[in-house]
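Observation: inputs received (chain + adenosine monophosphate).
Thought: call the complex predictor directly.
Action: predict_structure
Action Input:
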Amino acid sequence: MKVIMLGAPGAGKGTQAKKIAEKYGIPHISTGDIFRANIKNNTELGKKAKMYMDKGELVPDSLTLDLIMDRFKEADCADGYVLDGFPRTIPQAEALDRALAENGEAVDHAINVEVADENIINRMSGRRACLSCGATYHIKYNPSRQEGICDTCGEKLILRDDDKPETVQNRLSVYHQQTQPLIDYYSKKGVLAEVDGTKDMEEVFRDIIAVLDK
Ligand code: AMP
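Observation:
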């Protein structure tokens, strides 16, 4: 099963993607996590990606596409995956479709987690991330058991630089310009489902399962 998560930054698609991965036994692939791991390890890719990420801009397709295509070749992708943060532009979606079509495959579901802009800025300021294992929390909607500490690996949680209010505004406008057109793209392909991301996290997940199990 190949699932794509769509939605504005902070809509909760990462949290839902992890839950889908766990339930269906497929890998959760987040291009943002891959970039952040590269930044942490100070790789050449990480250095290049950071310049864009810190401004709330998209990393160029030329850097993103090779990275994700290599990831698809790994053995754990044989039965599908849930993509979180990719594709983010029409050219990325077209590249994904072309790569899948080579094996007679296609995207099965694109799930749009809908949250209005006015809610986003509020939600982002409460977001906390573990840079060590990629886990994400929200101080109100999805708190860690111990404040400021990751449940999974015990590392310190932080407010990501790109979740700070001044960057969020730019990420939102980038989302509207470059990523929102994907909603129409997948709708035309007949694989789009929309869920209300303002509901409780578990309720949103139930709505998603209803789509995936149909
Ligand atoms: P995320 O964790 O998905 O919110 O991604 C954080 C940042 O990584 C984004 O604001 C972009 O700068 C960059 N990024 C992640 N995925 C992509 C992608 N598919 N294309 C371009 N840039 C990306």
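Thought: report the result.
Final Answer: Residues 8 and 176 are 8 Å apart (CA to CA). The pocket of adenosine monophosphate is lined by residues 9, 30-32, 35, 52-53, 56-59, 64, 85-86, 88, 92, 162, 171 (CB under 6 Å).
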